Amino acid sequence: MPFTKFEATLPINSTKSNMEADKNERKNREDTPFTSMGNSGKTPSNFIRYSGMAMQTLGTILVFTYAGYKLDAWQMNKMPVWTLVLSLTSIAASLYLLIRSMPKLK
Description:
The chain is 60% helix and 0% strand. The chain contains three helices and no strands. The protein has helices at residues 16-28, 46-75, 81-101. α2 (46-75) packs antiparallel against α3 (81-101). The longest helix is centred in the middle third of the chain and has 30 residues, at 46-75. The chain starts with 15 loop residues before the first helix and ends in a 5-residue tail after the last helix.
């Protein structure tokens, strides 16, 4: 088995001053990639937030459409009734969830 042995190879600071210097360096670091320019690091950037919404919408539509496709194949329907019904239902559900998750306008 190639994965039976696991070794952590993290550098260990042996002195207290090095540990404090590393802690101060992490506090003062300003290049946080997951926050927007004006944020203090508490909320994700708009890009990440809206990307997550898009992935949720895409996932919902794909799962429901695939379930409809499999139901149609299982029932041997000539017209893809379940695919149409579940895909349209998933689009409506995705739009509903998208609208509910958008921030309220003032």
